[in-house]
Amino acid sequence: MNIKRFFGKNSREALTMAKKALGEDAVIVSNRSVSGGIEIMAISESEMHAMATNESVQHAASHQMHTSNNLLEDANTLDLDGDDYQDAPTLLSILNQNKAGAKTPKAIQKSIVEPAEIATAAPQRNDFMFKTEQSNHTSNQELTEKINFMLNEMRNMRSRMESQLTAMTWSNHLQNNPVKSKILSTLLAANFSASLSRQLAEKMPNDLELGKATTWVKNVLANNMHTIQDESELLNQGGVFALVGPTGVGKTTTTAKLAARYVMKHGTQKLGLITTDGYRIGGHEQLRIYGKILGVMVHAVKDEADLKIALNELRNKHTILIDTVGVSQRDRMVTEQVAMLTNTNINIKKLLCLNATSTGETLSDVIRAYKGRALDGCIITKLDEAASIGNVLDVIIREKIKLYYTTHGQRVPEDMQLANKKDLISRALTLNPSSWPFQFLDEELPFVVSTLQTQAETGRLMGVGHV
Questions:
Q1: How many other C-beta atoms lie within 10 A of the C-beta of residue 328?
Q2: Is the pTM of this model over 0.85?
Q3: CA–CA gap between residue 44 and residue 116 (Å, rounded)
Q4: CATH code given to domain 228-419
Q5: CA 296, CA 276: separation in Å to the nearest integer?
């Protein structure tokens, strides 16, 4: 190996000298700073290839010699009996000859690679190759698992660092603006979602006192809650309305309340009632009792064909109310129920009944189950049973669903009124003593909001500008 040394005042000069002597493809072996300049050790590319080839040949020879020695040791244990092997050279004699005359790698390769002469050694080599491949596969799999583990750890570290930095930012932000801290705490205690509460606190102007800040929040919430102005959209315009929702939200009672409000305004002749609740014991009977009191006949249907027949019989009615069977929002019957209402070729408006006592997560789940199927509006039920109503208002605002009515008791039709968004928002933000244990302390708020997504399923609120 012919490695040459070149010296120059700087790296460029020494490299130029090396390329001039060894060619443009000179390979730099090492470089170092010495007294007076830079020293480079270099070799030509052709000599580098020759050196690599020579090392490969030597490695092959060493490997073949090692294999030969192993086969020689194994051959000492072989017992080749029988007449068929008397005239054939033994494996031991071949290996002894190779061992004695092994001068070059070619001679070694020729003497031990003849298939007929080492047929008994082939299984050992194949087994060795299989074990090597299996070992490589296992190593690669372990390496992949370790890399994935490290990546997950790095992601977790990044998430924790971001959370801590956000917490520090919010801590400074809330300490400098106690009004925002109070508003954020109130919204969270009122059961508004963390994402909506955070967005309101972020966008609220900095120079507001607590009273004006509360008014600002109420106005923003009201601007983003859609309600009907009067009952003409439902009772005067008429049409076919189906009340849908999970079991136990009060659909039948709400249907009876709507029917009573219609009868009080327009009489019984133009109203039709239909029930599809054939699964509960006495499911039909509850609405039939209300219908009998109101003087309106109730049509019970069990499938799509019956529904078409009933709608055809009631085609001259001004308003038709359909009480549907209650099913879980995760039940496939939701799809079947909506399909039955859709396949009638009649524009049936679907009003979703939302239980005010349900959690925000449950209400979001219910809306997702029905919203993708042309939901027209909603009715909040059981307000009288709810300790806080921020959860249901939050879902209505985030999902942008029109609110028609609210109900707050079992009396028909007294315990039902047109939705008043200002009253609902004021009630939501007026905290009861029962909510105090669930309120966050000022020092806890930064750690709460740091784990939230700013735009998590909230979208852009109307009337909220950048601070």
A1: 13
A2: no
A3: 44
A4: 3.40.50.300
A5: 16
